[in-house]
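User: Run a structure prediction on this.
Assistant: Running it now.
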Amino acid sequence: MSAPRIAFVAGPTPDARAALARLKQRYASVTVPRADIVVALGGDGLMLHTLHRLMSSSTPIFGMNRGTVGFLLNTYRETGLLQRLRNAKQVTLNPLIMQVTTVRGRTTQARAINEVSLLRQTRQTAKIAISIDGQRRLDELACDGVLVATPAGSTAYNLSAHGPILPLGAGLLALTPISPFRPRRWRGAILPRSVQVTFDVMEPTRRPVSAVADFTEVQDVAQVIVTEDSHQALTLLFDPEHHLEERILKEQFQP
């Protein structure tokens, strides 16, 4: 089997830039558009940037951690890279589509790998109504915010907000409130990946809310619609012993 054409990308930190220089000396590399595989050097932030950069491409990404947590990346190792790439297991991720309408009627669309979140902009508690596939399920959620997370994103902000961890192959999304005040007992929902979630902001002028999809933030929103983009598939590569599904499973047993 011939060696794949590799493109290296790196984050701005000294560790990531030094790793980039060493790997380029050790392995032949090409530009990103010509690559069979992109090797990303950095943390989870860089991986998200790389996934967005390659959103319209089918090029798989093999990340090596030169950041802090590195949940979406493999262990950094300079030797044996070609063999690791040949043995790597694929994980396919589908992003979320966020469709936003602001109080002024402006519309915006963005995609998210981890989650779409709505957040209050001021000291005023947000009041948000929630509909699933056009049916109103919650007339008024008084909260700091609310989010919809993918399985890959369920261990990130969603977990910090006490949302459930979702296995990759479960075909589910997590709907999780952020610091809910009313209703007292509502702690969110687990939804099929095929649903359309609609958030209607109540009193959007008095209680302004922003919507965030990874790196895109829109302020003063009136309505946000979230769906999964089933036609857009992103491919990550993992060492068999550090597969993403195993990491997500382990997170459910952390003390």
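The first helix runs from residue 14 to 26.
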